[in-house]
Q: What sequence folds into this?
């Protein structure tokens, strides 16, 4: 598996994967990613700002997430964001579920944050997304609260290095 920064040439494959993941979320009756979130424009912005991260397996994009300084993601909503990173919009292509790809992606983002000198990470998640929250907790993320954001009411998790 290869972890790398997404580039504009990856956009089509990422958007196709995003739509498949959204269909799965609907079939699983998870009340997440509502009202069109994440819009294509958000993914395009991620990539244009070099915040998009992907995992490739056999030259195919199989996972995507946004990775950026927490101050950019949560500036108006959360305190104590200095020198911390965040990730979100985590998705794994349906055909590759259960292969440890999400774990590989998150592990690489944590290592990237450490290499950038961060002291920790802040993430948010819907509590109903048990697979995701259990994965985050397996890395040591701890629940530090809940918050209403413009797009959803989410649980906030933190990992300090």
A:
């Amino acid at each position: 598996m290869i972890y790398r920064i997404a580039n504009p040439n990856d956009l089509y494959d990422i958007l196709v994967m995003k739509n498949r993941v959204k269909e799965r979320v609907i079939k699983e009756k998870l009340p997440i990613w509502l009202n069109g979130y994440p819009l294509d424009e958000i993914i395009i912005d991620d990539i244009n700002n070099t915040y998009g991260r992907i995992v490739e397996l056999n030259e195919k994009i199989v996972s995507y997430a946004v990775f950026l300084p927490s101050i950019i993601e949560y500036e108006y909503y959360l305190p104590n964001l200095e020198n911390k990173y965040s990730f979100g919009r985590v998705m794994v292509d349906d055909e590759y579920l259960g292969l440890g790809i999400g774990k590989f992606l998150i592990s690489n983002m944590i290592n990237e944050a450490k290499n950038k000198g961060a002291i920790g990470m802040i993430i948010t998640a819907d509590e109903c997304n048990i697979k995701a929250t259990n994965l985050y907790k397996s890395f040591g993320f701890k629940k530090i609260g809940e918050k209403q954001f413009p797009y959803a009411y989410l649980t906030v998790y933190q990992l300090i290095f």
Remarks:
- The chain has five helices and seven strands.
- The first helix runs from residue 11 to 27.
- Strands lie at 2-5, 52-57, 60-69, 84-92, 120-125, 142-148, 153-160.
- The chain has a mean pLDDT of 94.
